[in-house]
Amino acid sequence: MDAPARAPRVAVLAGGLSHERDVSLRSGRRVAEALRSTGAEVSVHDVDADLVPALRQLSPDVVWPVLHGASGEDGSVRDVVRMMGLRVLGTGPRASRVAWSKPIAKTVVAREGVATPDFATLPQSLFRELGAGAVLDMLVARLGLPLVVKPSRGGSALGVTLVERREDLPQAMIACFSYTDTALVERAVVGVEVAVSVLDTGDGPFALPPVEIVTDGPYDYDARYNAGRTRYFAPARLDEATTRAVQDVAVRAHEALGLERLSRTDLVVDPAGTPWFLEVNVAPGMTETSLLPQSAVAAGHGLGTLYRALVDAAVRAPVATD
Fold first, then answer.
1. pLDDT band for position 231 (50/70/90)?
2. Neighbours of 160 (CB within 10 A)
3. Is residue 156 annotated as a catalytic residue, yes or no?
4. What region holds the ATP-grasp domain (predicted)?
5. pTM over the 0.90 mark
6. Is 281 annotated as a binding residue?
7. Cys-Cys link to 301, which of 89, 128, 232, 296 (CB 3.0-4.6 A)?
């Protein structure tokens, strides 16, 4: 009789030094709890000077970076884990770097025929050199109003502002530049905001039910992580054809960008039913209010079972070196 398979050893990375540290810590705890419920051996590690020695001593079967923001999503930590000869659950460093840059991700996805709002990128240095007033006038002339100003990299809606009046643009740019040196300014699309998570447990990527997001104002950091300001509908209140359309866009984005195991695509569905790609996240939030867990539960998945399936698929895969 065959001996039972050994429980996988999983090292969850959470925390780091980004603006999203607290969210990452909460996400990491939730993932660890869910995996432990399946019998997996799970340890949680911060990204600090103790990480590399700890991983060398532990020699986990797979490392799951539940890191939001820089280093966790820009590919750098994943590079280090790969150099150690360990498996990473999720997207590799190269594709992470592409997805981390919102302008590049939008360009790649648009080449696949996916609609994405027209946009311009503006480094802070150029903004100062050319003169703020003239540049902002050109932005409005080209893209119109309303506009969305957001950091070209980053998540959790930090530094993001919806601008409906020209006179509010300067303050929006200042808020954005407090988080990054390059702003992405895009035409705002009015419609239903949805998030679609994509998973791959070994048989190819598939989309979970879309989650609809309804807030009492902008879907900013406070609305995302503090209960009361936002209502979620999982699944989203979309007709069958539109549901299939947003799921198709999310899977196409996942594949076009070379993402692995899990991602979350944020979209807006306009009144004509067209899904507009906004951005993609290679390390989706896993807190109690996060969108991927809500979507998984709406699809009838137990979180522990689902996360364990992701781990098992990662363990079966060969160790990548790119």
1. very high
2. 21
3. yes
4. 106-312
5. yes
6. yes
7. 296
